[in-house]
Amino acid sequence: MASRKKVKKAVKKMSPKALFLAILFFAIVIAGYYLYDNYFKEKPEVKGELSFHFMMVGNADAGDCVYIKAGDNDILIDGGSDYDSLDDIENYVNTYCTDNTLEYVIVTHADLDHIACFAGSANGQSLFDKYEVSTIIDFPLSNKDTKAYERYQAERLAEINDGNTVHYTALECYNNQNGAKRVYDLSADGSLKLEVLYNYFYEHESDDENNYSVCVMFHHGDRQFLFTGDLEKEGEEKLAQKYDFTQVELFKAGHHGSTTSSNEILLREIKPKICVACCCAGSVEYTDYLPSTFPSRPFYERISVYTDKIYVPMTVDLVVNAEKPLVDYKGTQITNYDRGDQLTPLHGNIVVYSEADKEVGVTCSHEQKVLKDTDWFKNMSVLWAQSPSFS
Ligand SMILES: [Zn+2]
Fold first, then answer.
1. pLDDT at 322 exceeding the cut of 80
2. Ligand 1 mean position, distance from CA 256 (Å)
3. What is the pTM of this model?
4. What CATH number has the domain bearing residue 295?
């Protein structure tokens, strides 16, 4: 190896032009490294015929937005939790979707954390303004009367009126009605399919909006990948009764890894090999009780019986708020935690991909270790252990 002296001597001997070119060369290498690190690493190469991309959507609220590349089809399930995520979603999707067309958009239910970027902000654009959508599949029932849901309906109608879009409810799909299909072929050889599953709450009312969620199964040959939106226990029970499930490769955790979804009655049927919880780990937006933070301890305990391949896009820091100590449901006083401001990628953008004749793989833009081996989980386990048990 050249000594430092020799390098200094060589630099001295260089003409100004050569020196300039050498500096330029190193600048390009360094810029290239940063570009790779900040751009391509965030957006992994698509591997296999089918890939599921669980995006970081830049805020601490739990919300679903999953981009799916299935053969030549570009598919989105849900539109994130915040209007501000629009650019992040567009930026990510455009890495893979080059014709500005989403062949399928599936909107699972009318809660804001699933429709935000399809509804758009009061004065802003929506994902329907950004993309030509061929087929919209959404929920037949809703109890919502929010402004966001009104905007969603208006944006959906405008997209349909543009002329190249068909819209079906999941019930029409399940019943093969009005041109809708229960099973959509996503490849010429028949190896990739999108199946719209039957949910009892497509045609029965529920007090819980989550139960109206559209449920779909992707198939790649014999492999299955299950999405149930925010379906709650009653819905999961009906689903488990209706279908003779076999093991699934991937289960998107029900309701962001909350205590109330991903129940044993469904898990024992589907025995998931990989599970992704779409949430900002540590978020206390719906709870004051630490083990209920997303992903919740009861969820973790149920799912970890079947797999340790559990992934979460981001984390938010927790700060102790001594001002409002809490009493848990058993009457025990516990310390309260509030959500801080610090957002940090955990697994980052998570891609689950399926290649024929190879095991289903997972690649993450940040942490590669499974959840239980991350520092976040080790720290959270200590806090969970200090809180009264659910049992
Ligand atoms: Zn949700």
1. no
2. 6
3. 0.88
4. 3.60.15.10
